[in-house]
Amino acid sequence: MTEAPTLPRLNEPAPDFDAPTTHGRMTLADFRGKWLVLFSHPADFTPVCTTEFIGFAKLQEQFAAIDTQLLGLSIDSTHSHIAWTRNIKQNFDTDIGFPIIADLSMKVAHDYGMIMPGASDTAAVRATFVIDPEGVLRAMLYYPMNAGRSVAEIHRLVVALQTADSHACAMPEAWVPGQPVIVPAPKTPEEAEARAAEGYNTVDWYFSTRNL
Fold this sequence. Notes:
By secondary structure, the protein is an alpha+beta fold. It is 29% helix and 20% strand. The termini are far apart.
């Protein structure tokens, strides 16, 4: 029986790494002080992965605007990554400006639970990890081999996490900036009784929203 992958845990330090990339050797500490989106793909020179990399590249400036860096990963070599990004530039007129980890040893992929034996023993699935400026893992998203990610949703997720941290609130389904946010629910009967008079848009004691 194939051993199940060990997954990192939300709200705990993200697994450290020290790995070669297309921009030189990098460690998790290199991204300290910024948000990081680390995302894996099964292989270079594959069509679904190509569309995803184009999607990340097109939104790279928007990620930078929210102090977020992008870092790709697959178990291909640095030479393969370079050849593929050059191919994307030639065929799709898109520059891949972010680094890509060459995880030939599969160490980073295993540490982050990117290898799913049910999908492949030798390729990282489409996993995405959002890591905050303190190096804490804040979100994980996993996709199958045959379905591409929504890069816009990943950007929205980072914005939502940053806003929640800044304003001590939670975000409703599909929240985008400008929409009301959810006020944390009362924790005692006394707080629940007082909630209606606190000036929020309160539907019931446990469900209140406010504008930022």
